[in-house]
Amino acid sequence: LVILGILLVCIAIYMTLAFIIWLDPCAADQSLIEDPKEGEIMNENREFMNTCGSIGAYTSWYFIKRCFGLPAFLIPFFILLLGIHLIRAYRVNLLKWFMSLMILMIWASITFAKFLSPLFEDACFSPGGDHGNYVCQYIENFVGAPGLTAFLGLTAIAFLTYISVFFRFIIRKLLNPSKFLDKVKFKITN
User: Fold this and answer.
1) For residues 121 and 182, what is the distance between their CA atoms, to the nearest angstrom?
2) 84 touches 5 (CB < 8 A)
3) 140 vs 135, 150, 152, CA distance in Å?
4) What is the model's pLDDT at position 117?
């Protein structure tokens, strides 16, 4: 298990480097990926700009462009946590981390597609990826832009309440009117 853990840590580092490097020359690599010619996948003539090679370019294109956009950086983070858990360097609750990161990645993909897409008009990818764009458009068809914004806000509050005791305390204080009424002085006369 230790060897598998070390391998997963190395894969996580490789994916993170490939993602970071792909963000800059993604247009050149994307054209090679979407319209491949014979022998380009082997990268014999160094066609790919990504220094992690064709595998790094394909991995980055798939997870950032086709899937989740910028929140795809959470995937190598979870792989790193899994590797650390297998090495037994730290004790990690994998189920809680997986569920939290999965929800955060899906939510951030939709949120980035809705609110950050205008800032990335010249980029070769959407900050929310194709997943975020599709889900954003799908939900907006039903409830419109205000409904999508309310849905994203409510899911953010629900998620923060789930993971944070401090945030639960703040929500309870805000939603408990008795604390407010204690400070308001009033007199009851008969």
Assistant:
1) 52
2) yes
3) 8, 11, 12
4) 85
Q: What is the DSSP letter of 187?
A: -
Q: How far is CA 146 from CA 119, 140, 150, in A?
A: 20, 8, 6
Q: Cβ neighbours of residue 122 under 8 Å, at least 6 residues apart?
A: none
Distances (CA, A) of 188 to 28, 178, 183, 185: 76, 17, 15, 10
Q: Which residue has the tokens 């975020």?
A: 132
pLDDT band at 55 (very low <50, low <70, confident <90, very high): confident
Q: Which amino acid is at 82?
A: L
pTM (predicted TM-score): 0.79
Kindly give the interhelix angle for 26-34 and 53-60, rounded to the nearest 10 degrees. Answer: 90
Chain-centre distance for alpha carbon 25 = 21
SS3 37: coil
Q: Are 4 and 88 in contact (CB under 8 A)?
A: no
